[in-house]
Amino acid sequence: MQQEKNAQTIRLRQVLPDQIEQESMRIIVRELKQQNITLDESVAPIVKRVIHTSADFEYAHTLHFSANAVERGIKALQQGATIVTDTNMAKAGINHKALAKLGCQVVCFMADEEVAAAAKAAGTTRAVASMEKAAKLSGPVVFAIGNAPTALVRLCQLAVQQAVSPELIIGVPVGFVNVVESKQLLASLPVPHIVAMGRKGGSNVAAAICNALLYQAGGR
Amino acid sequence: MQQEKNAQTIRLRQVLPDQIEQESMRIIVRELKQQNITLDESVAPIVKRVIHTSADFEYAHTLHFSANAVERGIKALQQGATIVTDTNMAKAGINHKALAKLGCQVVCFMADEEVAAAAKAAGTTRAVASMEKAAKLSGPVVFAIGNAPTALVRLCQLAVQQAVSPELIIGVPVGFVNVVESKQLLASLPVPHIVAMGRKGGSNVAAAICNALLYQAGGR
User: Fold this and answer.
1) How far is residue B183 from each of residues A56, B189, B199, measured CA to CA in Å?
2) Which 181-200 residues of chain A touch chain B by CB within 8 A?
3) What pTM was computed for the model?
4) Where would you tag: which of A65, A93, B25, B114 has the fewest CB atoms within 10 A of its CB?
5) DSSP codes joined into one string, B182-209
């Protein structure tokens, strides 16, 4: 059969599963060099992991880090921080073994019944109500917002009002309406932040940044 | 404070949450037109939803559909198909209300203990073993592979051997090693498929394609 013949002519590289990530990172480093992109050493592991998760080298240009953001994030995770996400997808993408090793946890309140009720009562959205609930968490908290600009805007407002003091805000929502603006807002604040400027981002990017920080913190 | 002043000057568009998706889709349609991209009517809802989820217009060029792939996918979901993913992240990103409305379910065997044991016993990977387990499912099955090229390659082999007869394979793994090749392999087979050619893809893209099909099938 023609299709079987075609299938047989596809050549797969013989790489053991645990070597695939190393090999991928080598390719990423090589191509960054070819594009004359030099990454600051402190942020390179995060940028490379986001490129690894997206195959999109644009992030080498769009990821912005406030001073000491990476350091603050790593330290918080070493102290057993809670990561708050705005989607269950980002939550699912964070390495749970690494979280457990560091005594960290990840929560997402978007599907929370209490949050749904609070949103309805206040005439607001679940994204907003979930941030208000998360603002009451005790201990070090890292926010990872990969989807809802409304969540990120509310979080920024709470931070300006000092109703929440996150160790780090990862602001990488994706999309076309209020997304760019919500990230500009975060980038203008003195809160430690990692932002993907522009339209791109997503739950996968939010999870990748969390994982890069977890691994640097000793989670694997 | 300067930062508060900056924050106040960021202008957010006043759009109600349920209008954000409509407004996003309008922007996507407008920009596709500006780029002189015309989408075939049958695939437009899927391409637009992938762009919506990634803010990446490259997918208008890289998404390939075999003949009747969309039709087959929709029909399978209307018959209560099981969607098999290769990550819990993709599973979490699929609209569970839409699944329930159509009597569909989504499964991911990657974290399955039985799969881990089978992989160890056979000296293979969990990605491979999870596909072998999924091949034994009864009823209509749609595969959505957004991460592991090894899973996609094994699935293609099983399909060629007629050990599995999926209604549709969504092949959108992301990355740098064997990813392009695994998608070329799928594209060469007579199995109904939707493929994101090239390096890009991901669990978010896999979930977006499933959601677009679920919505077209009447899931909302």
Assistant:
1) 18, 10, 9
2) 181-182, 184-185, 188-190, 198-200
3) 0.95
4) B114
5) HHHHHHTSSS-EEEE-SS---HHHHHHH
